[in-house]
Design goal:
four-stranded antiparallel β-sheet, homodimer, Aspartate Aminotransferase, domain 2, about 15% strand, Aspartate Aminotransferase, domain 1, alpha/beta
């Protein structure tokens, strides 16, 4: 059947990211590589009680068509914490935010169409759009202010001058950017919002970390600024647990029916059982306490990572100082001439320490490839605070050795 | 954002089937319309215990990457009951069999490619392939022997003569056909298998009802005959419960990695929690007893439906005598001049009895449209046996009235 595979799939491989995650998740490895939330934070007891309740009391939980209208109201309430005014009719439940990306891409991207996105971004958008062989329009990112709205403006204005069509879609992660750990600054957010509305470019806003802020709430997302141009995605993976496979989209109401068709053709519907279990967990005050706890734990780990980076890598690199989420991004100084893939190999072999090389997050042939090659994503979500100093010291040791060699 | 939707989606609507299911599932209606399994058969207690166990004992249940290797072995064992020899490496878990269809279509169907399928078929294949605007090659079906292999042979041979490419894929439901309730005869199965292999056409074999046989096991499916040309799909929806949203594909091992990529870009992975819960339910002897119970209950309902049809509709129609599954298909005699949509309207209004008009299962412009228009799908899965006589008598009453009017 090999020869019968669709063209786009024939030479396709598992995403580099997922391959690497496998490579670096061997036992005994001190890993800053995973994109996993801390399992100790999963509300296991609450979920156990909620699943038991749904199975004991609600006969629709296991049947087709078991949509929980209550859950949609609760999602509207969750979104309001991000400053989004939505209605239950605008909610489309998804099998995690990844399915939200897939649905949004299928809904917006024509075969051979154009995608506007960060030069380093979540690989899920790369993977999901790839079958449509799109033209990729990359915009620069920086570690302090996030996605560069001014560069995007030049790009879009230039295209317009050349009478070329606007991109089919833009993809942005407003906060806790994966892999960059940055939040788009208020000024840039506003510039992006105006730009996208002016050029009539629909935005996929991927916001799984929106409620995982540390010192203060993140600025309002795009869905609160240009709702009619935004397909907003989030999920319960980072605030409850990924094993639930439950996320949601907020879409303009006029499109909800048709986007529901795309969902339906993908997997019919989300588990009614899981919908009910999550809805039960969201009742009452549990979520507030839980979110505070999650934020506290991750903030402490972020602090431990940043202290270790300050201590050991200041001469060699720059990195993001995340105000939420699970990641920091580190760029080795260009003049060191060190690439992160060989650095990873040495770190794994000699230090049993892992991270993800930045190149995993850029597209083949990206203009940012040189930068991505000397970068790494550092996850701070799953290590105890006391482990960061040793892990970062180990990476620094290898950097120093490689730097000496280069001189 | 309306104008930004991808072309295929702009004028798209919810499938007629799903619209109708909504229409006919009002309270108080005696419904032969739904495609739902009987909720009394869901193993609610076993699932409650299994979810509780997974949450109490297995920390990976709620994390990413929580694949249950044990479940893959159990799926291999399930498949062996259908005469399929598979290996765990050939299993791809899916969010229900609908996602299996979606993954298979994405893997095989090029934009504007060709799909070979029954002239009346499960709407999920229509809906999932539609975005690729395929050419549809319809093959006839009959109510006794199922999909017509000889007609397919002529079609494929003719295309070959004309030096046109073989179809990108074929889609067949070997047993308990939805909507037809028929099983493909042994002779036709063998002819189809040889034909597809000879023309090198990959087959999506959709087999959700494969273990829901009544008097005797169904004949071996295509996966047991031409495994290298078959992407086999099934799910736990009909044998445990649809609210689990868990199904599986069996694919040639050489393709498993790439088909895994398609799954991953769709929704990353299936819930580790649900995988564990289902795996627990499958341990021990429970499933055997459960399947026997399910078969017994549905067989009794099938009998009650067929008796009622024999009694009330013999002069007016022909129908399938299903050897498993959940559906029968009834075709009103052409000379009556009665279409099933107006018949449904009258049945709903005057009798509070519902069924699904056959036209919901044919493609727009289908060569079988005339036949589909005077047909209906009758589900026997959710009504108590004593209700069929009244429901069918009510439909017969309306048929008689319309027939008199036509004379």
């Amino acid at each position: 059947m090999e020869a019968s595979l669709a063209d786009w799939l024939r030479d396709r491989q598992r995403s580099m990211l997922r391959q690497m995650v496998k490579l670096v998740s061997k036992p005994g490895i001190l890993s800053l590589a995973g994109g996993l939330p801390e399992p100790e934070l999963f509300p296991t007891e609450q979920l156990a009680a909620a699943y038991a309740k749904a199975l004991a009391t609600d006969p629709r939980a296991l049947q087709y068509g078991g949509t929980s209208e209550r859950l949609k109201e609760q999602i509207v309430e969750l979104a309001s914490r991000r400053g989004i005014r939505a209605r239950p009719e605008e909610v489309v439940l998804t099998t995690g935010a990844q399915q939200g990306i897939d649905i949004a891409v299928r809904s917006l991207l024509e075969q051979g169409g154009t995608v506007l996105l960060d030069e380093m971004s979540y690989t899920g958008i790369h993977q999901t759009a790839a079958p449509r062989t799109p033209e990729w329009l990359e915009t620069p990112v920086d570690l302090e202010h996030g996605s560069d709205a001014e560069a995007a403006r030049e790009l879009l204005d230039q295209r317009k001058l050349e009478q070329r069509a606007a991109p089919d879609l833009a993809y942005l992660i407003p906060d806790g950017h994966n892999p960059l750990g940055v939040s788009v600054s208020e000024e840039r957010r506003q510039a992006w919002a105006e730009l996208l509305a002016r050029h009539q470019v629909p935005l996929i806003e991927d916001d799984p970390y929106g409620l995982v802020w540390f010192e203060q709430e993140f600025a309002a997302p795009f869905k609160a600024r240009i709702p009619e141009w935004t397909l907003y995605l989030s999920s319960f993976s980072k605030i409850l647990a990924p094993g639930l496979r439950l996320g949601f989209m907020l879409v303009p109401e006029a499109l909800a029916e048709r986007i529901g068709v795309v969902k339906e053709s993908g997997d019919l519907e989300c588990s009614g059982l899981t919908q009910r279990a999550v809805s039960t967990v969201l009742e009452g005050d549990f979520l507030d306490d839980h979110l505070n706890h999650v934020r506290g734990v991750y903030a402490q780990r972020r602090d431990a990572l940043l202290e270790a980076l300050d201590r050991h890598l200041t001469p060699f690199a720059t990195w993001t100082r995340p105000r939420g989420g699970m990641f920091s991004w580190l760029e080795l100084n260009a003049d060191l001439g060190i690439e992160s893939v060989p650095l990873l190999e040495r770190s794994l072999e000699q230090e049993q320490v892992a991270f993800l090389p930045g190149i995993a997050f850029s597209l083949p042939g990206s203009g940012a490839a040189d930068r991505a090659k000397r970068s790494m994503r550092l996850s701070f979500s799953t290590l105890s605070p006391e482990l960061f100093d040793g892990a970062v010291a180990a990476i620094a040791r290898q950097v120093e050795q490689l730097a000496t060699r280069h001189r």
